[in-house]
Amino acid sequence: MDSVKSGSSRVALVVASECQAVPGDSMGELQMGDGAAALAIGDKDVAVSIEQVYSLTSDFLDVWRLPKDLYTQDWEDRFIYEKGYLRIMRQAITGLIKKYNLDLKDFSKVVYNAPNARYHNVLAKSLGLDMKKQVQSPLYDSIGNTGTASAMMTLVSALEQAKPGDKILLANYGDGADVFVLKVNEKIEKLKNRRGLSAWLESKAMIPSYGKYLHLRNMMEWAVDRRPAPRTSLPILYRDKEWVIRLIGKRCKSCGHEQFPRMRRCMWCQSSIEKPEEFEDVLLSGQKGKLFSFSMELRAAVEDLPNVNCVVDLEGGARFYGLMTDREPDKLKVGIPMEFTFRKINDAQGMHNYFWKVRPVRG
């Protein structure tokens, strides 16, 4: 926020993400969830203005993890929630109210994170908030506690129903607390048709079994794989980052066709790619397409069988061949709409390797 306000940055992207490992058969499996949210901070076409900010820092130790540990540890619930969470959040929220001479009744929505649904309600009641009208649902019943991402995801949910002129109080707990006063502007109407949190929830797919969950989270030991280990190459990634990471294709200026990946000549009119003036870059990641063909491998060394390879005709005219994810095999058919999603392909030589996959359009 400070970099945008000072003019050193035009737009800043703030991302919060959580994918916390929890022990099997624990309360954490019931309470925790995975999630992420991102907000663009800028000074043009502002949909939500940041009016006031209040922060405090606390060295209160409640949850920790040693470098060698896979799982987090915490102290007794009542102590860490009452002496930590409730005390610090009340202090931060009331501190903002007093500093800027505000009244909690003036806020259309109050958004904040909490360790669980019980203490989310306890904090609301201690502040005298209207649980039905003011307090935004923390999504514990549908997603769970997403930790770092919780407050931002709940804010996104609140903004889906927000109207111009609404005032929102956002509070986030962690090593202290940060509290924001937000004002919804007219530009919010331009965001209404975007795929929000509700659309993601409506299009979710259920994991068929607990064993499948353990497999996908890599929480079980498996037989030794005798195949050669996957390899990677930083020089190749550096050279090809435009199409590997950004999914940049080429559009031929002579015939107007798009193609991916980059080739030495246009597939249609044979113009040479060695003449840069005859081609222009085109971003393909935002394009949708239709499933042209697909095949399913029922026996393959992948986490999520069957392994689906497919060909997708993009709306700009290019054709993409790759892997499909987030699919229900019995519902696949030629012609269904498809979209891109950026995913981890494998771990090789101590590095995570990412590329683009396609999936049936969600939401």
Describe this structure in words.
The chain is α+β, with helices and mostly antiparallel strands. It has helices at residues 2-6, 27-31, 77-99, 117-127, 150-159, 197-202, 210-216, 234-239, 241-244, and strands spanning 11-18, 35-42, 48-57, 63-64, 73-74, 109-112, 167-173, 176-184, 248-252, 258-259, 279-283, 288-297, 307-314, 319-324, 337-348, 351-360. It folds into two domains: 2-202, Thiolase/Chalcone synthase (Peroxisomal Thiolase, Chain A, domain 1), CATH 3.40.47.10; 225-360, no CATH class. α3 (77-99) runs parallel beside α4. The longest helix has 23 residues, at 77-99. It is globular and about 70 Å long.
Task: Give a brief rundown of this model.
The protein is α+β, with helices and mostly antiparallel strands. It has helices at 2-6, 27-31, 77-99, 117-127, 150-159, 197-202, 210-216, 234-239, 241-244; strands spanning 11-18, 35-42, 48-57, 63-64, 73-74, 109-112, 167-173, 176-184, 248-252, 258-259, 279-283, 288-297, 307-314, 319-324, 337-348, 351-360.
Features:
363 residues; alpha+beta; Peroxisomal Thiolase, Chain A, domain 1; 2 domains; five-stranded antiparallel β-sheet; 16 strands
Secondary structure blueprint with pairings:
Blueprint: H1 2-6, E1 11-18, H2 27-31, E2 35-42, E3 48-57, E4 63-64, E5 73-74, H3 77-99, E6 109-112, H4 117-127, H5 150-159, E7 167-173, E8 176-184, H6 197-202, H7 210-216, H8 234-239, H9 241-244, E9 248-252, E10 258-259, E11 279-283, E12 288-297, E13 307-314, E14 319-324, E15 337-348, E16 351-360
Parallel strand pairs: 6-7
Antiparallel strand pairs: 1-2, 3-8, 4-5, 7-8, 9-10, 9-11, 12-13, 12-15, 13-14, 15-16
